[in-house]
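Long-time lurker, finally posting.

We've been working with LytR C-terminal domain-containing protein (candidate division WWE3 bacterium) and I want a structural starting point before designing mutants. I don't trust myself to interpret raw outputs, so I'm hoping someone here can both generate the structure tokens and explain anything notable. Sequence follows.
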Amino acid sequence: MPTTAKSLSKNKSFKAKTLRGSKGKTKASALKRNSRSLKIKSKSTYKNKKIAKKRSFASYFPLFVLFVASLVILSATVMYKNYLQGFASASSISAFSLQDTDIFSAAVVYVDSMPQLGKDYTPDVISAVIYIYDTNNMSINVFNIDNDLEIDMPGRLGDDTLEKIYALSLMITNGDTAESDHYIKHSLSRLIGFPIDRLVVASDEDRSDVESLLLRGAEISPLLIKDINLYVNEVSTDLTKQEILYIAREANKSQGNISEIDLTSDLSQSSDSLIQEITFGSEISVEGKTVAVLNGTTTVGAANDVARAIENMGGRVITVGNADRQHDTTTLLIDDPDSAAARGIYRFFDISDIRLKDNPGDIIDAEVNRADIVFIVGVDMLDQL
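Top reply, 14 upvotes:
Generated this for you. Predicted structure of LytR C-terminal domain-containing protein:
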């Protein structure tokens, strides 16, 4: 091959290599520029993402707070409803909770010290207070009773002072505290002629705490629920936690409409008119069911005590007389098991024989047809009168 041709060939090869090298350098330079650009974009994107995250968090923070607040409110509502639920209402006449009636009562007996296991000591009663709650008028009527007031004790025990009622109740019931509390409730019921629905026995030292819940009321809050848990452990009561919370709520509504009466021996004889003023306009009164009270025993006046209690509840007693024959068991004849009057009567008296007037059994028509509700006092009730 001629020299010139070789030179040209080498020159072409050199140029091709140079061109390839130049293109490589150009590509490398472009890659560097692209890499820098990507780094700058990456940094810019990272900053933008951080700003976006901050903005996103800032925009969602109020929603987060609202969500947490909703959970707290929901939890408190569920807790509150659980505490208020109490007993389920039923069509049975025997089903009763404080929420089922517009007027209910609770009595508190304050003692010098609470009874303790293993200690042979019977507390003396310092005083008693009866609260009657009127949920329609949002009012509380308070009856204060001193321990020297004489009470006609059930079971033909005669009169004795309130101070000794706790000791007497334990003696009669052979130390059965549940039966003892029932005896105290019945004794106080007879005193004012109105059913005592619930009872609290507390040390006189705890008077302020008891009044804070049952009289002054309190705002509904988890703290109040905690107080109720402590309260139940410190006193003796047949109130459920739900009922304590319910009373606290009703007491809170009734502030500014509280009447206090000091029940003396003179006033206890005329307390019926005071009670009837409270129950005027109650569900039982408005319902207007007529009631006949018949004495099915040989004890004179047995039907009068029953009639007094029914009238004080707001019941409309149209006749008080004698049954056609003697009845060993007290019987209540009703025309409607959902009647407010029928439920009220059951609250006051321990009646095991309750019949619908459509199916009176061995009760004769002359007695069945006396009124809408017929109360026949049996021999088994004499210990209560």
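Before you design anything, note these points.
Residues 281-384 form a domain with the Alpha-Beta Plaits fold (CATH 3.30.70.2390).
The chain is about 50% helix and 20% strand.
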